């Protein structure tokens, strides 16, 4: 099977000042015009979950309080997967195209997490108006904006 190589383009910084995507100097020109979008899709490598054992985790025991007792890893947002690739959508607060720093409202990626790509959020490609989800999670918020006020601690078993 063909091998694939992924190179980080930057990293996530989270600290008392907020959440930031710091782009490596080589990739700063790729930020041109990203600041005209309100949101960005961050594709990141869950490096703290990158081991042979974690990559071979194909099912998990009830990760959510109301979910089925066993779920396939592809039916979860878990970073434990064959390739620890994660995707988060974040609101862009400010972009410093000269320094390569994007301040974002929030991300669930940990500090110093490698970012492998950025894509602008566009409703025509990223928004699904008529989606379905399982009964056990239908009460979850339907947007990032509403998600901030939701008590996620009541949902997870981890």
TrEMBL record:
It comes from the Bacteria. Residues 6-130 form the TsaA-like domain. The keyword S-adenosyl-L-methionine applies. Keywords: S-adenosyl-L-methionine. It holds the Pfam family TrmO_N. InterPro entries: TrmO-like_N, YaeB-like, YaeB-like_sf, YaeB_N_sf. Belongs to the tRNA methyltransferase O family. This is TsaA-like domain-containing protein. It comes from Sebaldella termitidis (strain ATCC 33386 / NCTC 11300).
């Amino acid at each position: 099977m063909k091998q694939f190589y992924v190179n980080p383009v930057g990293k996530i910084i989270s600290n008392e000042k907020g959440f930031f995507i710091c782009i490596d100097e080589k990739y700063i020109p790729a930020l041109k015009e990203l600041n005209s979008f309100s949101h960005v899709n961050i594709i990141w490598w869950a490096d703290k979950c990158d081991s042979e054992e974690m990559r071979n985790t194909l099912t998990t025991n009830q990760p959510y309080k109301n979910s089925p007792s066993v779920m396939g890893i592809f039916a979860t947002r878990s970073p434990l997967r064959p390739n620890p690739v994660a995707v988060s959508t974040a609101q862009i607060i400010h972009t410093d195209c000269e320094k390569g720093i994007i301040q974002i409202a929030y991300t669930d990626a940990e500090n110093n997490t490698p970012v492998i790509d950025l894509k602008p959020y566009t409703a025509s490609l990223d928004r699904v108006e008529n989606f379905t989800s399982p009964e056990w999670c239908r009460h979850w918020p339907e947007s990032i904006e509403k998600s901030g006020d939701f008590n996620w601690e009541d949902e997870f078993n981890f």
